[in-house]
TrEMBL record:
<dbReference type="GO" id="GO:0005524">
    <property type="term" value="F:ATP binding"/>
</dbReference>
<keyword id="KW-0456">Lyase</keyword>
<keyword id="KW-0479">Metal-binding</keyword>
<feature type="binding site">
    <location>
        <position position="348"/>
    </location>
    <ligand>
        <name>(6S)-NADPHX</name>
    </ligand>
</feature>
<feature type="binding site">
    <location>
        <position position="302"/>
    </location>
    <ligand>
        <name>(6S)-NADPHX</name>
    </ligand>
</feature>
<dbReference type="GO" id="GO:0052855">
    <property type="term" value="F:ADP-dependent NAD(P)H-hydrate dehydratase activity"/>
</dbReference>
<feature type="binding site">
    <location>
        <begin position="386"/>
        <end position="390"/>
    </location>
    <ligand>
        <name>AMP</name>
    </ligand>
</feature>
<feature type="binding site">
    <location>
        <position position="116"/>
    </location>
    <ligand>
        <name>K(+)</name>
    </ligand>
</feature>
<dbReference type="InterPro" id="IPR029056">
    <property type="entry name" value="Ribokinase-like"/>
</dbReference>
<feature type="domain" description="YjeF C-terminal">
    <location>
        <begin position="209"/>
        <end position="476"/>
    </location>
</feature>
<dbReference type="GO" id="GO:0046496">
    <property type="term" value="P:nicotinamide nucleotide metabolic process"/>
</dbReference>
<feature type="binding site">
    <location>
        <begin position="55"/>
        <end position="59"/>
    </location>
    <ligand>
        <name>(6S)-NADPHX</name>
    </ligand>
</feature>
<feature type="binding site">
    <location>
        <position position="149"/>
    </location>
    <ligand>
        <name>(6S)-NADPHX</name>
    </ligand>
</feature>
<dbReference type="Pfam" id="PF03853">
    <property type="entry name" value="YjeF_N"/>
</dbReference>
<dbReference type="InterPro" id="IPR017953">
    <property type="entry name" value="Carbohydrate_kinase_pred_CS"/>
</dbReference>
<dbReference type="GO" id="GO:0046872">
    <property type="term" value="F:metal ion binding"/>
</dbReference>
<keyword id="KW-0630">Potassium</keyword>
Amino acid sequence: MRLFTAQAMREADRKAIDLGYPSLLLMDAAGRRTAKRLLERFAGRKIVVLCGKGNNGGDGLVAARWLAHWGHEVAVYAAEGQEGDAAMAQQALRAHGLEINPLSAWKPQPHSVVLDALFGTGLRGPLEGFYAELVENINQSGLPVVAVDMPSGLPYQPHIRANLTVALAGLKNEHLFYPHRTACGRILLDSIGMPPRALDNPHLPELLSSANMRALLPIRPGNAHKGSVGRVLVVGGYRSYTGAPSLAALGAYRTGAGLVTVAYPADCDVVPPLEAVRLPLFEWNTANLQMARADAVAVGMGAGEGGVEAALAALGLARPTVLDADALHERVLRAYAQSGLPSIITPHPGEASRLLGLSAEQIARFPLEAAQTLAQRYPGLVVVLKGGPTVLAWTPPGTSETRMAVNSTGNPQMATGGMGDVLAGVIGALLAAGLSAWDAARLGVYLHGLAGDQSQKPGLLAHEVAETLPEAVEQLRSGSARDFWEPGYD
């Protein structure tokens, strides 16, 4: 499953037409499916359909026709100048005897629900004049709004604030990335019958879902023992950050690691989980770290000024490694990239800004581009750029093609201290279980976010997410994990 830009979805539409699929059939399916999903949540209310003059407006005209055909009270307000398929949809609507009112005549009607079919993904800039005022009036009306494919006005201001968005054919960036995602309300992804070949685009980011992540879960054999299911070495800790390596260890254990060793400065009051092996050290060097038998390493959590030294010492172990927090420095990343070891870096926007020489605000605004740039700068390293949502990127050595993925789990309540430490431990456990760096990173961020979604509440703490990881694993394994976009295929 891929995540589409507006341009990529338009290309998919053109590809479907080139394959011989009639565009009018796509519009009819889009309108019918939207109407059906609207009725699932707002049956019994008068429906007011607001239509622009493009294809999104055509989808709304089709929806109005089906709603009327099914016996529901519908009022239609449309812009003048319908063309192409939208004009044919308008003609079909008139054949059903429905009056089409000028869009300028719309006024909020009590107890109605608004179907927003003004603008789709084709906007080239912010709405102005009449349309900007119309959007503001809709938002201020207090009426429930269902958006066709995308709330009108996105990704600019002003835009519709919808209660429900029926995404058509595929999810777009605005459905995933904050703050735009907030304007969509509940999101339902629905099929419009587009040929699968039209949607197939390997250059787009993969959207992590329950279906594709379930296949990556490690299988624990019946004769498993603690040394056969993954041994993780956590390296970190500093006087001010004694909890970070402990949280990483807890995340590793709760994801299924058989044995976790925590290496930390001997002069720090680090208290690992009771089940962890303690390895207090007076010096970061490879020989000291070799006292712990490890299948994978997570290094840098709360390591402070010793982060670079600790990471370079861990490099000598020649084990798959997660580089987090204070290990994220140019010198370290270059060394790991040159080593060829399976390695994962997990920066947040602030850490990525230091690596790229950009502001954290720029990183947060353009996370896909930032993650891709990091992956191309450090070939072979899997990039996990944490955020809302987390973006992953990987440029295999010797290639110019960067693989991209976007996580679909997690929520804003997870924006608290220690969450990244838990994530580093989760990914470390999956590396130790034998997954590739790309698979461990994707499954790790998905499970971490899924665990956070189990207890989506204010004041959510990192150790609470760690404790919920076994439930998240079981949900994914059993098939009971649900994707946030509520698929509407039937």
